[in-house]
Every structure is written in structure tokens, then in C-alpha cells.
Design brief:
Length: 101
Amino acid sequence: MNTKLLRNNLLILLGYAVVIQLLSLTEPNGASMVVLFGMMVAVAIHVCVLLLGAIVNVLGGERASAGQWLLSALLVGVIGFGTCWGGASLAELYSGPANFH
């Protein structure tokens, strides 16, 4: 099994998770919503692209490669969902009502 596809997609997930978390720093109150909606849209697009890639591989006759694309879609979806909620919790810590300036 070639793990380069999964590794690359997890690095892409890490990249846009960090960017969205940094963008939430610009929001003085309610940064958790920036993280929730930003990650929700980004992960949904990422998983849809991976599923589309799996369909293209199945139609092209490369079933082993399609399995890797499906596995990547599943893992990006699960890890992205957790990252979404974890990032929102962190954002709530530094921009919540207790820290309102």
C-alpha cells in the first residue's frame, strides 16, 4: 500500500487547519465560529475531492488506487471533524466572554 496519498492529504489538512486557526485570531469575540465554519467547509470540500478521485479511479479500472483514495477520504473526514471541534474549543479559550477586552 502506498501511503504517500494519505500523508499528503493529512499534511494538506494540517496546513489549512493552521491557516484557519490563525485567521480566527483576528476575530475578537466568537472566534470558535470562524474555526467551526471554516473547517467544516474546508473538510467537506477536501473529502468530496477525495471521493471524486476514488470514483475516477474506479471508472479507470484502478481499484487498488481507488481504495487508497477512499481510505484517505475516511481518515481526512474523521480527523478533520475532530480538528474542527478541537480548534473551536481552543478558539473559545482565547476569545470567549471571559477574555473580552
